[in-house]
Amino acid sequence: MSEYVKGIGASPGRVVGSAHRVVWDIPRVEHRTIEPAEVADELQSFRGALSLAADGIARLRDGTAEAVGALEANIFEPQLVMLRDPVLIEGTEAYIRDNRLSAARAFDWQMFEIRSQFLDTAHAMVLDRLADLRDVRFRVLSHLLQWEEQAVVAPGDEPYVIVADDLTPSMMVSLDRERVLGLVTAAGSRGSHVAILARSLGVPAVMGVGDELDRIGEGDRLVIDGMAGEVIVEPDVGELARFKADTVLISDRRRRIEELHDQPTLSRDGRRIRLLANLDRPSDAEEARRAGAEGVGLFRTEFLVIAHTTIPAEEEQYEAYRRVVEAFPTSEVVLRTFDLGGDKFPIFLEMPKEENPYLGWRAIRVCLDLPELFSNQLRAAARAARHGDLRILLPMVVSVDEVTRTRDLLSEVSASVAEADQRSIRLGVMVETPAAVETIDLLAPHVDFFSLGTNDLTQYTLATDRGNPRLAHLYDPLHPALIRMYRRLRNTAGECGVPVSVCGALASDPAGVCVLLGLGYDTLSVPVYSLPEVKELIGAISIQELEGMCHDANRCESPGEIRRRLDEYIGDTLAEAGVAR
Length: 581
Ligand code: PEP
Ligand code: MG
Prior knowledge:
globular; TIM Barrel; Glucose Oxidase, domain 1; alpha/beta; 9-stranded mixed sheet; binds magnesium ion; 8-stranded mixed sheet; binds phosphoenolpyruvate
């Protein structure tokens, strides 16, 4: 009997192959104390191991640049940054000097502490970096304790699917690409470096299956769907036949979508829509270009602070921002300033314990209270702006005062960068609080653009925590209250002559696309992996028809009613356009 294992579609593609279970772990490090006379030698061994580990990672990075690409090679940069981290180095040295621990034990303790800090934040972006931490830990310890590299190769020469609790980026780039058909892992997410590498290498992957991994045994036959995030264990004849037929349909559709990628986005009735990308890290920029993004509508910058143990240096930020701007030299790159707080706590900040973190010290409030952190970011952005059309977007704004204070700081900072780097930078506000929607006319004279953040606007308007699974049925961005807000925002911003785009998740939900276009929005910013499907959907719909439907949507009493109508419309429209769903 076949079984279904559900996870996250981390790298698209569909394959059939037999499972090879890879079991690996970092061995336990023995507790060993040292004599005072050994301290100097242990300190030296530690420094030596750090430098050998850095050499090894740099070699891997260079090899990856050659074999896979420069952007993928950058995945190893955070590991090199970790090896230079003063918290790691000074902490380990203190354990050696003050607690008389062997270098290996001291380093392992310090890594354990950093890992606990990562886990305490419980933020997806930090958890994504755990595999990098493991890579670094294994690498340094293997130099201190003379361990062998961990191999993930199956015996024999048949192709296989790797089934493991987790892999590290180093393992990913060392995979035997001739034989590895796909991956299934218990840990991991779409944003992890292992997932990014799987996509670049074209290896289908289902990640985050958790304990379900135990349902897969060595040698089991597997069907992997890296798009849907599904694994069939020991498929029957019918499932295999369906798999083959679907694969043909899907690859036809992919080919059609790829043909569209460099053509302008037009609705069926000929309206021009601009499709931009949401980026979570600089390395997404190239993928966004390949997928046909016309620019970047939301560049989240938390990747620079979330898994870091120190405030990121201006230079590091500048390089990261410049990389994205250079990937889009002639179009806008909208950089959002640090959206910290809520569920995103950087390790280096003493975040207060709050009863309601989403209503607490978050986003623009944190930045304005920490001028050193904020000016650093604004200065790096002002310098990167010289390379293209970089704009700045402020999260969670509730008052005009937050915008004017930021503008003053931005002018001050811009005046302090070299004259050649000075540009007048456009400043925008995320409309993600009911206060911002209600005061659009007051905010408008102070900003150059607005960006509608439907994710937070939904939670603040419906008083429903966006991350609470118990309330998931209440959290619906198509609630009538929100549709009325989207309409008012569009109209008022239009009357004030300020452009408004949408960057929340609603912009990539098919029903959401229909509502937003029907309400008059013409610029959507969506995750990179959604670009092709959103573009294809827009090509099939008539905005004129949607305008009529959205007019009626004002009288719908529930999100369910709105969705039902739109789903029906989308089904009919796509069928007419001959698009398989
Ligand atoms: C939003 O709130 O809609 C948004 C795009 O921001 P984030 O999801 O990063 O909070
Ligand atoms: Mg938000």
